[in-house]
Amino acid sequence: MIYSVVPEELGPELYEQLVAYYADDPDVTVIVDRRRAGRPPGGPPTADENPFRGRRRRRIPGDLPPFHGDGPAAA
């Protein structure tokens, strides 16, 4: 399934044209994006509200083994 998503502002101009254009293709569905800024109460957190955003993973303790450059990739 392929969705052709039309921004709500352009819906009145483009929706019917795109539906007609893709009428012969059963794998394409044209939809109008009606999402609003923010989120409904109880929904998942947005990227700005995510407490894990921007955190780095901790470095694994220890050192890497020395690289001597004598393997097959050294040539």
SSE topology:
Blueprint: E1 2-7, H1 11-21, E2 28-33
Parallel strand pairs: 1-2
Keywords:
75 residues; elongated; alpha+beta
Q: Regions with pLDDT < 50 over 5+ consecutive residues?
A: none
Number of strands: 2
**What about the largest sheet?**
2 strands, parallel
The N- and C-terminal alpha carbons lie at a distance of 49 Å
Which structural class best describes the helix and strand composition? alpha+beta
In DSSP terms (H or I, runs of 4 or more residues), the helix count works out at 1
Question: Going across the major beta sheet, what is the strand order?
Answer: 1-2
Proportion of strand residues: 15-25%
- Estimate percent helicity: 10-25%
Order of helices and strands: EHE
- Rounded to the nearest angstrom, the radius of gyration is 25 Å
Q: Judging from the principal axes of the Cα atoms, what is the shape? A: elongated
Mean pLDDT reading: 78
Description:
- The mean pLDDT is 78.
- This protein has a domain at 1-35.
- It has 1 helix and 2 strands; from the N terminus they run βαβ.
- It has a two-stranded parallel sheet with strand order 1-2.
- It is α+β, with helices and mostly antiparallel strands.
- The longest helix is centred in the N-terminal third of the chain and has 11 residues, at 11-21.
- It has one helix at residues 11-21; strands spanning 2-7, 28-33.
- The radius of gyration is 25 Å and the shape is elongated.
